[in-house]
Amino acid sequence: QVKWKGKDLFDLVCRTLGLRETWFFGLQYTIKDTVAWLKMDKKVLDHDVPTEEPVTFHFLAKFYPENAEEELVQEITQHLFFLQVKKQILDEKIYCPPEASVLLASYAVQAKYGDYDPNVHKRGFLAQEELLPKRVINLYQMTPEMWEERITAWYAEHRGRARDEAEMEYLKIAQDLEMYGVNYFAIRNKKGTELLLGVDALGLHIYDPDNRLTPKISFPWNEIRNISYSDKEFTIKPLDKKIDVFKFNSSKLRVNKLILQLCIGNHDLFMRRRKADSLEVQQMKAQAREEKARKQMERQRLAREKQMREEAERTRDELERRLMQLKEEATMANEALMRSEETADLLAEKAQITEEEAKLLAQKAAEAEQEMQRIKATAIRTEEEKRLMEQKVLEAEMLALKMAEESERRAKEADQLKQDLQEARESERRAKQKLLEITSKSSYTPSVNSSATALPTDLPSFNLISESLSFDFKDTDMKRLSMEIEKEKVEYMEKSKHLQEQLNELKTEIEALKLKERETALDILHNENASRGNSKHNTIKKVS
């Protein structure tokens, strides 16, 4: 509305987002290439906002916390800071070394995709994601697939972290970067030397224009007595009166106003952190602790249900595999039974033929015997006829003997075939019995399988577990939560050491692929600081 003040518009945005930690944020706009922030007590349209419609404001973090984990209470606050810091790193407004960029990218992936699943997150799933600063990509002879492989290797280690936890881990790493939360302004000292002024949560810092990482001088907020400006001249008065007053000039009066706004806001927050929390903040922290405990219990419940579901699915798969195995065994037994029946039929047929042949031979032997008797009975008068008859008798006897032997052999063969037929029928009986056993087993298995297969797709099927949980936060719950927090602190120290080792390993691994000629001035400065063992905080202590 036309009569709205800055606070009215700002409050509307905060209510829309459900944001209560409003002191970190503001509405930013640009006027004549200079950044400005909407004043809360001034009408919106009374600001030097652009006259073109629609008027654009950017809802951004104006002030940064010293320790994100301790100061950012609401999940929405953490998420907004995560989005802003991530964008600043990708846009290279915050310098981030290559190995730390890969680690931060892995936490950003965890926040977006959840736990790593090799069946879902297949090669190339990060192809369309912007995860690394272009400076880092151009610095190494590495393909997108090689970067994805290294990001995924770390992403897989973050299993079990919820979105808010992954985003907080991202901020905890990012807050140690030298340019995190620093607003830079071009200034000149009394001698006319060009410098940079940095304003952040820790104090005021003076930089060389070519080195935004390492300040030349720092003024912590607790050592500053007074800050003021007159026209374009800005004055910093240290608490120690023995130290000279520091004066500098900015390019525009509007810039001095912005510097003073940031100084006042950061100083107020600096002092506020060192006092007891207000009632509102205490209430918010208590609610956040309860919410964290509730989410932790909910995650544990879901993890248990997921585990039970996975076990049920494994049991189902095992039963299905067993059923398939039994079906194969039944098929094989059925085939064996059919083969046994065919063999028995063949043997029976062969035995019948052999038996008929034996009967035929016996009949022929009887006929031969009758012929011999008839020949013997016939009287042969001449000697020659007698000799011939004796020869015929002898031949008939030999033939009868052969016939008898053949008949005996055929009878034995028939007996053997009958025995083989008996064995075949016995094999057939056993095969039928085994098939019956397998059929009885398989008839039981599908009932178990069907119960496993019939698992519903939605987790609330575990009614017993769901109904047994209680979210009544008693003292014992809070004590247990406190013990878990202490345990997490110890684990975090161990993880930090492990993390540093991993960062060094990655740095060593990709060092051989670096293109030295593409190193920026900030890359070189960072490497020099790292070789000297300088970090953001110990550097500020040295130059304070």
SSE order, one letter for each helix or strand? HEEEHHHHHHEEEEEEEHHHHHHH
Q: What's the CATH class of the domain at 6-175, please? A: Mainly Alpha
CATH architectural grouping of the domain at 6-175: Up-down Bundle
Low-confidence stretches: 443-478
Structural class by sheet pairing and helices:
alpha+beta
Strand content: 5-15%
Rounded mean pLDDT is: 82
Give the C-alpha Rg. Answer: 47 Å
What is the straight-line distance between the termini?
47 Å
Specify the overall morphology: rod-shaped
Which strand order spans the largest sheet, edge to edge or round the barrel? 7-6-5-4-10-9-8
Helix content: 55-70%
Number of separate strands = 10
**Separate helix tally:** 14
CATH topology of the domain at 6-175: Acyl-CoA Binding Protein
Largest sheet: 7 strands, antiparallel
Coiled coil: 482-523
GO molecular function: actin binding
Region (Disordered): 410-429
Keywords: Cell membrane, Coiled coil, Membrane
Folded structure, characterized:
This protein has 544 residues and is of the alpha+beta class. Among the domains are: 6-175, Up-down Bundle (Acyl-CoA Binding Protein), CATH 1.20.80; 183-275, Roll (PH-domain like); 317-379 and 386-439. The protein is built from 14 helices and 10 strands. The strands form 2 sheets. It has a 7-stranded antiparallel sheet with strand order 7-6-5-4-10-9-8, sandwiched between helices. Helix 3 packs across helix 7 (163-174), helix 4 (98-113) packs antiparallel against helix 7 and helix 4 (98-113) crosses helix 12 (475-511). The chain is rod-shaped and about 175 Å long. This is MERL protein. Keywords: Cell membrane, Coiled coil, Membrane. Residues 410-429 are annotated as: Disordered.
